[in-house]
């Protein structure tokens, strides 16, 4: 008997190709200067075919932003697989070391989308959901350290603010790049996890 393997919904590959083309266009020239015609050329499709799958450039941005939000959340969910020392190392490495999923381009893309989210309720919703998930996952790191939930949440809020500031600063200032942010983030996290009682020396 012939076994039929499940297939992806029709058009999924073409949609993914278009989304990839969109991110390449944004990487080359930024979101503001990217047009649907640019995306169609990059994806090697007719503009009419592009609009068959996506209504607008805004829709492409929302989908790519949502996917990147999910990448970050899925990455932080893996902290549950480690002990305290492992959690500190993993979180710092995942958030600050350049990788395929989290890198200089994705950082810039996220901040560009976040800027647009001020006037886009869908992007704003995605950002809020990501923020809440990330802070909850960071707070979970301290479950076996702090019995008081509000203390865990405060630590997570501080770490998340430090992350956002360090990533933004490192994006524009080469002297304070990912490694600089990672060192500061780890120092704060170690103190919060009671691994260091005072600010550790470099």
UniProtKB/TrEMBL annotation:
**Molecular functions per Gene Ontology:** DNA binding
Q: Which PANTHER family match?
A: ACREF/ENVCD OPERON REPRESSOR-RELATED, ACREF_ENVCD OPERON REPRESSOR-RELATED
Superkingdom of origin organism: Bacteria
- Residue ranges of the HTH tetR-type domain? 12-72
Lineage here is:
Bacteria, Pseudomonadati, Pseudomonadota, Gammaproteobacteria, Cellvibrionales
Which Pfam families does the record associate with it? Answer: TetR_N (PF00440)
Name the DNA-binding stretches.
35-54
Instruction: Return the SUPFAM superfamilies for the record.
Output: Homeodomain-like
Q: Which InterPro entries match?
A: Homeodomain-like_sf (IPR009057), HTH-type_Tx_Regulator (IPR050624), HTH_TetR (IPR001647)
Write the protein's name.
Answer: HTH tetR-type domain-containing protein
Keyword tags: DNA-binding
